[in-house]
Amino acid sequence: MPIALNPEWPQLALYAIGAAFVLMLLFRLPYVGRALRALFSLAMLALCLLMVAQYVPFDPTLSSLANRAGFSGQQVAGEEVRIRMARDGHFWVNARINGVERRLLVDSGATITALSQATVAQAGVKRDATLVPVILQTANGAVRAQAGTVERLELGGIVARDLKVVTSPNLGQVNVLGMNFLSQLASWRVEGRTLILTPKPTTGATNDAG
């Protein structure tokens, strides 16, 4: 198959070289260069802050700090939930993701909540635009993933809003509830064969899930 070069690319390359040359000349001017350098520094700072802001929801520690400071969009509230250990030794829970019922594995070893692509499609999970690609480290190596936001996740008496999630065809069909959810709780602990999830604003009632 013949390969043709898009004729617009050479023109764009010339424009880029010309723009870089003009900027270099402007930077040499005393006042104009100083102003441009200041604007460039502010633009780089804004870009870095935006990248950090996009990363915060995926890091349990930073997400918890942002939530305490009132900067986090993720919210987890409701009543205490107790989850009994399954026969396989794991804690599974039935939850509703944007109204769609799904079974999730509660995994404190997972940094971020991960949903299968089928769940994302059926629950209508919104895909997020990110400046940098989301790369996950799994048992099978690095995996490129797509970020998204669950508007509402109901787990027994607990409701999470605007929960950040990731999805990738390489993650399989298992839905995993990770630390970015657990870190939003007042506490979570295992007593015997029961996992106890306690949200921050407790109302006194207890629900069983799983």
From TrEMBL:
Source species of the chain: Sphingomonas turrisvirgatae
InterPro entries (alphabetical): Aspartic_peptidase_AS (IPR001969), Clan_AA_Asp_peptidase_C (IPR011969), Peptidase_aspartic_dom_sf (IPR021109), Retropepsin-like_bacterial (IPR034122)
Gene3D superfamilies (alphabetical): Acid Proteases (2.40.70.10)
Keywords of this entry: Membrane, Transmembrane, Transmembrane helix
GO biological process entries: proteolysis
Pfam families: gag-asp_proteas
Segments crossing the lipid bilayer: 12-31, 38-58
Gene Ontology molecular-function annotations: aspartic-type endopeptidase activity
Descriptive protein name: Peptidase
Record lineage: Bacteria, Pseudomonadati, Pseudomonadota, Alphaproteobacteria, Sphingomonadales
